[in-house]
Amino acid sequence: MLALTSSAVLAMRLSSPVMQMGAPVGAARGAATSYTGGVVPTRGPMSSDKAILVQGGSLRTWSYRSPAVEQVQVVLSTDGRPLDADIELWHGPDNTPCKMRVYVENGQLRPFSAVIETPRGPNTVAIRNIGQIEFPIAANVIADQVDSPSPDCIQASATIQGGALRTYPFDPTVDSVQILLKTDGRPLNARIELLQGPNNNKQVIELYTEDGLDRPFFCVLETPGAGNVVRIVNTAPVEFPMTAGVVPGSINQEMGSGAILGGDVVLGGDARW
After folding, report:
1. Would you say domain 148-252 falls under CATH 2.60.120.680?
2. pLDDT tens digits for 116-156?
3. How would you classify the pairing of strands 83-90 and 123-129?
4. 37-145 has which CATH code?
């Protein structure tokens, strides 16, 4: 009989490996308890205060189980490069009650910010960067201190019939614009465009919501500079009208004629010297 080596004898004396579950499960349970009612990224560090970098062509999800969270705010930005993303709300298997396609020419100058209604949890917010790998996106989903439309925005709602469009020009002193879209319970299909010059799209949002009363859409568009026009198109058939409220969100009180002459280009030659 061959003599057993010391390493073989040591291996025979050792017990079979046992999966250790105590510490990781305890940590996971504690983390889940501290985030009850909040938005937690499905992967990555569990922090809802910092934005997560979404590389081009990748998908990130934010999931939460608490039914107390009835709306979340999605904020997307870049370091100055274009922003092209798909945002979807998943509510149950194969159920997408809200989705939108977002394009921004400059994600640093005009970051995207929108509020998504999430009644009857659990829900999952999925953000896919459909741009190239050279164009990452900083994404954040916030469940507390969500923006809400002002009373002026709610009262300014006007009907836009299916297939119709409406434009809203704004003064150069307007730094941001509030947009509220909703229906009487029918599906909501709309296209929101921020133009600065003839057919010069700075920001485009293609929106679908299965119930415009239960899940209205609210967003804040940054409108720096002069010549900003918001165009809203009801892309649904004539049987599906919607109401739109578009009002200034913030006003730059320091923006005057001198600031306009010093910053933006004035065309037409009718400026006061």
Report:
1. yes
2. 999 887 899 999 999 999 999 999 999 888 999 999 999 99
3. antiparallel
4. 2.60.120.260
